[in-house]
Amino acid sequence: RRDNDIAAVFDGAADTVCRECPRQARCWHIEYQDTVDAMNNATKPMLARGRLEEDDLPLYFVKSCVNLSEYIAAVNAELKGVLYRRQYKKRLQENQMAAFNQYAEISAILKGIAEELGTGVSVEPELEGRLRKFLKGVNIQGETAVFTDKSGRLHAEIFGTSVKAIKAIPNYLEKLSEVLRVRICAIENPEEPDRLVLLEAEPLAASVGISFKKKNQEAVSGDKGAYFKTDDGVLYVILSDGMGSGELAARYSGETVRILERFLRAGVEPETAVRLLNDLMLLKNQDDTGCATVDLVCINLFTGETKMFKYGAAPSYLRTGNTVRRVKGRSLAAGLGAAPHDAPDRHAMDLKPGNLAVVVSDGVTGGSEDGWLVKMIAEDKSEDPRLLAAAIVEQATSRFGNEDDMTVIVIQIKERE
């Protein structure tokens, strides 16, 4: 109950050592004020060091105490207990706040789901009629459905054993695009051979190039990355750098990427997903304070609207024309930030055809000047993100050696061909 009062440390030591001492009455009654002054004077250096030393005590106390070494040992034992309990209480409060945050985020997710269900989809009877007429014209039978989702993207589905016959039609996607009046693409699912899913094609396309190099003498890289596109036409790119190196770092970064990818694929909003990730890592790694940096890039391939989220990550770079802009963050790595410092850095921008985004782990710049990297990105004419990613890793290796894991992800935006 008295852990916030440092006087309890000295009182606890006195109860252990001084109670049976023949000088107890003199030290703690007759010369009580002198004893208290000695403890007060010793408090500041003791807390700064984390333990009490004989030199922290005034000479008159050292000369008069007949059990000095035992008293100092008892004070240090009490102090160790107080510091451990303070640390435990602080971590417990952080974990409780993380759990509260999770409930709040889950509530937001459920509210979003309710709103989505209420919005529903818009059926397109005219386009469905055109699709049925086309299938009838090529002697193919099948059930059809055509609708527009909440974001305005057109969906069409054809069911039946005749799906294979549709795919056998030369340039079938171009012909179906004419029927549905928008350019479409097909979503393949080997587990449903009798179902053809058609989606309105995004006007933008993204090419992704990745290059990496492991730290010297390490069997695995502590960096992990992933990229995928959802049915909503959003490209997600994730890069995580785990704390430390080797297997342990790989475990932290691997868990980070897996958790975040599952949230995003399940339809959780990106900002909610990264906040939940931070809270989960606070709870999951409470014994070893494991953490990992996070870079999350979300690109809407219909509009070019782009969001970047960062947790303790190295700067990223955005090229527009010949101009390169650094995108920095101030937040701590995921698994370290507790409320109110648990929010990720968030940046919003619009990417257009010809723009380039470069995401790197901190081993690429070694924490030093990055003008060489900005110049490489600005002057690159390769039109192939894989070549630029590999060139950056090669240049970083020549400058800094293999003292840390390096990963480079280059995203190039183009018009869909």
Descriptive notes:
The chain is an alpha+beta fold and 417 residues long. 43% of the residues lie in helices and 23% in strands. It contains 12 helices and 15 strands. The strands form 3 sheets. The chain has a 5-stranded antiparallel beta sheet with strand order 1-2-3-5-4, covered by helices on one side. The protein has a 5-stranded antiparallel beta sheet with strand order 6-15-14-11-12. A hairpin with a 2-residue loop joins strand 11 and strand 12. Helix 1 packs across helix 5. The radius of gyration is 31 Å and the shape is elongated.
Gyration radius over CA = 31 Å
> Could you list the spans in which at least 5 consecutive residues all have pLDDT below 50?
none
What is the rounded distance between the termini?
70 Å
- Largest sheet at a glance? 5 strands, antiparallel
Average pLDDT reading: 86
Q: How much helix, percentage-wise, in residues?
A: 40-55%
Tally of DSSP β-strands? 15
Quaternary state reads single chain
Order of helices and strands: HHHHHEHEEHHEEEEEHHEEEEEEHHE
Shape: elongated
Strand order of the largest sheet: 1-2-3-5-4
Total helices: the number is 12
Beta-strand percentage range: 15-25%
Class derived from helix and strand content: alpha+beta
